[in-house]
Amino acid sequence: MPGGVMVHGTMESLWRACLQSRVAESAYLGLGDPFHASDVRSLDKGLRRLPFEECLRLRSQDASEKADESRRKPRLDEHSELEDALALPAPPPVTSEVKVSSEKSRLYHTGLVKERVLEAIKQRSVAKEPRETGVK
């Protein structure tokens, strides 16, 4: 990696490097194993195998609003949870920012690739939502 350093580690290591390093300007995360995608079908198949939930909080808008309600100031008797929260932040919420580049690929339309990545994240998010059964 020209002008950079490649490091293998845990998600905790990545977060600590981003938050505590005074040298790192940015960090890139290799998510899952590389896969060959010569067409849209194989791209979709490869995207379904990526573990997005390991680095993104996957949730819908409704769940996001409910989560905002739960983000209240911790009480003093919740000291251990507060320590945990200060030690390592939760992954950022999913945003619509996805950067795509394509070189020497049949999938040259970067807008299409970006759309497929966002759709794969959205589908995973919907799958993670708890379903209400109506039974109480």
What is Rg?
A: 18 Å
Largest sheet: none
Total strand segments: 0
Number of helices: 5
Q: Which term fits the overall shape?
A: globular
Order of helices and strands: HHHHH
Unreliable residue stretches? 60-65, 74-79
Helix-strand makeup class: mainly alpha
Region (Disordered): 60-104
Biased composition (Basic and acidic residues): 60-79
Tell me what you see in this structure.
Residues 60-79 have a biased composition (Basic and acidic residues). The protein is mainly alpha-helical. The chain has a domain at 35-128. The chain is 43% helix and 0% strand. It is built from 5 helices and no strands. The longest helix is centred in the C-terminal third of the chain and has 19 residues, at 110-128.
Keyword list:
about 140 residues, mainly alpha, about 45% helix, globular
Topology:
Blueprint: H1 11-20, H2 40-49, H3 61-70, H4 79-87, H5 110-128
Helix pairs in contact: 2-5
Briefly summarize what is shown.
With 136 residues, the chain is mostly helical. The chain has a domain at 35-128.
